[in-house]
Design brief:
It is a single chain. The protein is α/β, with parallel strands linked by helices. It folds into two domains: about 100 residues; about 100 residues, no CATH class. Helices cover about 30% and strands about 25% of the residues. The protein is built from six helices and twelve strands. The strands form three sheets. An eight-stranded mixed β-sheet has the order 2-11-5-6-8-9-3-4. A two-stranded antiparallel ribbon has the order 1-12. A two-stranded parallel sheet has the order 7-10. A hairpin with a 5-residue loop joins β8 and β9. α1 crosses α4 and α2 crosses α4. The N and C termini lie far apart (about 55 Å).
Length: about 230
């Protein structure tokens, strides 16, 4: 199924997969609403799976001097979609220079004995997975204003109506149609099992979204210096 398309097109394909409607038919109003609910359930579930979501967004927020804690979410100090998978990375910008920040776990932040330390540069942040807004803790506390940029995994946005247009990377529309079909099977399936297709198409997406880890090593542990760095 090509992208962009509409939610109702995905729902129609899903119902065709399980025999709920025949070729050339369209879902009635009740079927379309059930399909919309299933569509949004799939997006919500996929947003909890790291490799099911393509890429991430980098959002930039204002820092207040002397403030070490911020809420992050739809009604937070920093307004954005609430992260469901934490923060992938961060950097602080001062006088036009970006300084990388290490992302801590909540446990690592809690282990800091003196959290009131202040500095011009933030060295570490921790994300507390609260609701409806998450909480970001800064260490040390910046004593001056600036900006911070957070790399946050995307959250797949729910559809408001069946006529909403949707644009997603290659493979997503087919995977969505099969995933929605699985959600609708208990109500409309009539014994048709499309779960193998749903699993395989989602697996294709996850393989496409997977980023191969970059190998690195500490030169001090190897006892040698790469030839390019020896100067001859």
């Amino acid at each position: 199924m090509p992208s962009p398309t509409t939610v109702i097109a995905v729902i129609t394909k899903a119902m065709l997969h399980i025999g709920a409607i025949a070729s050339g038919e369209v879902p009635n109003a009740n079927e379309a609403q059930d399909g919309l609910d299933a569509f949004n359930d799939v997006l919500e579930t996929w947003s909890l799976q790291n490799l099911a979501v393509y890429g991430s967004d980098v959002d930039t927020f204002a820092l207040v001097g002397g403030q070490a804690s911020y809420t992050l979410g739809p009604t937070g100090n920093w307004v954005t979609a609430r992260p469901v998978q934490g923060i992938n990375g961060a950097y602080v910008t001062l006088t036009g220079v970006d300084y990388p920040i290490t992302v801590w776990s909540a446990e690592e932040y809690n282990a800091v004995p003196v959290k009131a330390s202040q500095s011009s540069i933030i060295e570490r942040i921790a994300y507390i997975n609260d609701y409806p807004n998450g909480i970001v803790k800064l260490y040390p506390t910046p004593y001056a204003a600036g900006t911070i940029s957070l790399d946050i995994a995307r959250v797949l946005t729910a559809a408001a109506t069946i006529d909403d247009a949707i644009t997603l990377p290659p493979g997503y529309m087919r995977a969505l149609a099969y995933a929605v079909a699985v959600e609708l099977t208990p109500q409309y399936g009539g014994g048709i099992d499309v779960s193998p297709q749903a699993k395989s198409t989602l697996a294709y997406i996850k393989r496409a979204n997977r980023v191969s880890p970059r190998a690195s090593f500490d030169i001090a542990l190897t006892g040698s210096i790469p030839v390019a760095a020896r100067g001859y």
